[in-house]
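Inverse folding, one chain.
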């Protein structure tokens, strides 16, 4: 187990789902406690530590990740640290959500660098289990939440969201967080996780956090590190096309806007749109006209480069 020394300032309150502590700088009960960033590979060790935290009345936030952390992840961790007394970050490349074995194999793994970032962000605990620890026996549970789990990513990556629900539900049972933090880049995933939480009646608040982008607009992603320099140079075309399409849409039909985005991106050598769906932001069902819904979002997946690397993004048109 890895230890990193630092100090935290926390406060005690009872206004959370589990009646535990909440973060507030103005609370008169503010107190300083010495802590260490602790990295656990065994689930039971983390649970024992969290038992003591809850016994002391502290709230718990969870940031589920697959590692290869970047500023987007850091923003989630900082939000959790702000909202909760204790922040847990999971670093686990979950095999059950990959429908492409090559994608799983090349997914970046950078635990040492991840821990340094989490130390800087003032996280408290890291859970970095082996696959055998997370799945001591095969997980045969099936999660389906049509239509949100069966369109777009669900249609193009069979089994992906089932694997996401398997690991996220396990993490929720292990950590029992008051709040869990997800980035809006994985916008459809948030909708699926919320559906799972409702079905399983889990007492956890799902907190959505804004996309963090590079200066050139590319959404920050662990997969960006896999891009060759020439591939990285063309990747920002994706967001530029999406952003420009919000103005284009004001004077054009939904179908024309869809084609504008796809044709603009596909015109760049090395980029290939897998799908671009313009959908109702609540149901994730396709809409035919701008007037069909008050909340309209465009969701896109693009293959970039020779490998290729799969990049996702989205843009809001209405709502």
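Residues assigned per position:
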């Amino acid at each position: 187990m890895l230890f990193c020394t630092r100090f935290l300032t926390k406060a005690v309150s009872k206004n959370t789902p589990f009646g535990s502590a909440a973060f507030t700088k103005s609370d008169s009960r503010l107190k300083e406690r010495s802590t260490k960033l602790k990295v656990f590979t065994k689930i039971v060790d983390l649970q024992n530590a969290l038992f003591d935290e809850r016994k002391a009345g502290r709230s718990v936030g969870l940031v589920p990740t697959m590692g290869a952390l970047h500023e987007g992840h850091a923003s989630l961790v900082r939000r959790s640290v702000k909202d909760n007394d204790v922040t847990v970050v999971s670093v686990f490349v979950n095999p059950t959500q990959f429908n492409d074995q090559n994608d799983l194999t090349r997914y970046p793994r950078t635990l040492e660098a991840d821990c340094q970032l989490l130390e800087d962000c003032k996280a408290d605990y890291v859970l970095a289990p082996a696959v055998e620890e997370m799945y001591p026996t095969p997980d045969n549970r099936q999660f389906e939440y049509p239509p949100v789990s069966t369109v777009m990513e669900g249609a193009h990556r069979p089994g992906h969201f089932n694997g996401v629900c398997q690991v996220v539900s396990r993490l929720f049972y292990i950590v029992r967080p008051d709040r869990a933090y997800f980035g809006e880049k994985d916008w459809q995933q948030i909708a699926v996780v919320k559906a799972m939480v409702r079905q399983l009646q889990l007492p956890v608040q799902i907190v959505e956090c804004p996309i963090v982008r590079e200066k050139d607009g590319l959404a920050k992603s662990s997969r960006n590190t896999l891009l060759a320099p020439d591939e990285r140079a063309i990747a920002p075309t994706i967001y530029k096309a999406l952003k420009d399409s919000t103005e284009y849409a004001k004077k054009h039909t939904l179908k024309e806007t869809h084609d504008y985005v796809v044709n603009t991106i596909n015109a760049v050598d090395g980029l290939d749109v897998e799908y671009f769906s313009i959908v109702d932001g609540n149901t994730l069902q396709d809409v035919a006209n701008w007037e069909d819904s008050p909340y309209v979002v465009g969701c896109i997946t693009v293959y970039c480069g020779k490998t290729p690397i799969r990049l996702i993004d989205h843009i809001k048109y209405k709502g």
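Residues 86 and 138 are 31 Å apart (CA to CA). The mean pLDDT is 90.
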